[in-house]
Amino acid sequence: MNKKSWKKDRRKVACATLLSFFLSFVCYGQQDSFGINVKKTDSLYILGYPEKLKVMSFVSTRSLEIDAGDKNYSPNYPLNLGVGLVVKNTIFGMQLGYGFIPLKSKKEYGNSKVMDFQAHHYGRNVIVDLFFQNYKGFYSHRRSGSIEELFPDMSVLQFGAEATYLFNGKRYSSKAAFDLNELQLRSAGSWLVGGGAYYYRLKGFDDYAASSANSFENVQLGINAGYAYSLVLNDRWLLSGMAKAGVNFGDATHKTRNGKVDIYPTAAARFSGNYHKKDWGLSMVIMISNKSVYPIKSDELSLTSITMQLSYVKHLDDLFKKKNK
């Protein structure tokens, strides 16, 4: 088998692994949507909304930052506006967003082409996260913030799936914390464990051309653990946080020899502040995920995905009110 065909086969295996990982956890994570194998909630801690539908509008920013030691690379990412619809107790839910003009001057910070798709399912005991991020066009800057150079051909592609199991889903509601789909009546927390599968492809890293290839691929599988907690301030305000850390196992394809597997550190956190009333609410969610694409003992290069979203949520029984006859 020649080198070119081997690379194609390796990509197919990586994609198939990610797809099968996602499908298995989505099927498991959706069990609570149909009322199958669901642990009953403690009504003193969790209360569901009685309405059938949830509609939302949101404003968000999404970015993929690259940390290369004393130098960072950032895209000129846009502001996104969108809407969403969820039919409760089913698997139907969707969000549509559109990125407007970049938040920074194209002349000074360059122009970035961004395709950033994320989906998050918050179940009773399982959280499933999907992401597909393709960014092209970066600018480099020192930690002081001064811009050094534009890299219009530099690109980063990463996609993958993660699943997180919550041990105390009976009293802690991730739906209330991050989806505004339930109410958390009393403060509660939960230990958690999870795992994920990831694929990375980076191109156009001119600073690394002298020591290695300026483009490379990476496939990883990982495990993590952490803790989540929601603090009920009063009958209107809820503050929540979730943090986890772990390790990934995989191969940096530009360095792999004889099936070598490297170890990569990972960390992730998400925070939210929610205000809710009887049938509507406001939610601010921040999600941060950091993953390395070089081994710990070698040249460290890490990717940090940052998402911030402000949402208005309305709970309804019908999209259109029936006219009185």
Characterise the protein shown here:
Helix content is 11%, strand content 58%. The chain has 325 residues and is mainly β. The chain has one domain: Lipocalin (Beta Barrel). It is globular and about 55 Å long.
Outline:
Helices cover 11% and strands 58% of the residues. It starts with a helix and ends in a 9-residue tail after the last strand.
What keywords describe this structure?
325 residues; mainly beta; 3 helices; disordered N terminus; 11% helix; Lipocalin; two-stranded antiparallel sheet
Would you tell me which CATH topology applies?
Lipocalin
Q: With helices defined by DSSP (H or I, 4 residues minimum), what is the helix count?
A: 3
Radius of gyration: 21 Å
Fraction of residues in β-strands:
over 45%
Low-confidence stretches: 1-38, 209-213
CATH class: Mainly Beta
Strand order of the largest sheet: 2-3-7-8-10-11-12-13-14-15
Secondary-structure element string: HEEEEEHEEEHEEEEEEE
How many domains make up the 3D coordinates? 1
Major β-sheet annotation:
10 strands, antiparallel, barrel
Whole-number average pLDDT?
Answer: 80
Q: Gap between N and C termini, in Å?
A: 74 Å
> Percent range for helical residues?
10-25%
Secondary-structure content class: mainly beta
Shape: globular
CATH architecture: Beta Barrel
Give the strand tally. 15
Pfam family, one: DUF4421
Keywords: Signal
InterPro entries: DUF4421
Organism: Flavobacterium ginsenosidimutans
